[in-house]
Design goal:
The protein has a single domain (2-74, 85-179), classed as Rossmann fold (3-Layer(aba) Sandwich), CATH 3.40.50.2020. The protein is 27% helix and 29% strand. Helix 3 links the parallel strand 4 (99-107) and strand 5. With 182 residues, the chain is α/β, with parallel strands linked by helices.
């Protein structure tokens, strides 16, 4: 069982972080005609939709948005159980030659991102894939690095970082949880 240790980000700062991520993406990739977003199920999808809306506000056009569920690409699929919950994957546009920005909530070991890269490559051959994460908490197990980071939060491996989004959780915030004794 986990209990809240620290509130890192409240809702007022949440949108500022998303705006900053959006501007960083546009600064690095100004050719929006060749830019597409991918959100990793679940919270990465909501963050990607918000980045999409911010970029549309800035550039006056909407970027294609893909949704991927990495469940079947996990390297621990046989460990998680016989009936894993698989959510929607939707990619209804061509990614060949495009710059893909993969969006997720928390970057921890890097294994989720590795699985997402495998899945994206099943849809085509992008020119480049970049990673945008709301929180990078360290502790990589595979050589993955984010191109765009909303907030770096140093944690212990025993702590748990939760990014809550209003669409799913009723509020926007980032909290660090720790295991509760007993």
């Amino acid at each position: 069982m986990y209990k809240e240790k620290q509130k890192i980000l409240k809702s007022t700062d949440f949108s500022k972080v998303l705006k900053r991520l959006s501007y960083q993406i546009l600064e690095k990739d100004p050719d929006v005609d060749n830019l597409v977003l991918f959100g990793i199920q679940r919270r990465g999808v909501f963050l990607a939709k918000r980045i999409q809306a911010i970029i549309e506000e800035i550039e006056g056009r909407s970027l294609p948005l893909g949704i991927i569920d990495i469940t079947l690409y996990r390297d621990d699929l046989t460990v998680i159980g016989p009936m894993p919950l698989v959510r929607e994957t939707r990619v209804d546009f061509d990614i060949n030659g495009k710059v893909v920005v993969l969006v997720d909530d928390v970057l921890f070991t890097g294994r989720t991102v590795r699985a997402a890269l495998d899945e994206i490559m099943d849809f085509g051959r992008p020119k480049k894939i970049q990673l945008a994460v709301f929180v990078d908490r360290g502790h990589r197990e595979v050589p993955i690095r984010a191109d765009f980071v909303g907030k770096n939060i140093p944690t212990s491996e025993e702590e748990h970082v939760v990014v809550e989004v209003k669409e799913l959780d009723g509020k926007d915030e980032v909290v660090v949880l720790e295991e509760q004794d007993g």
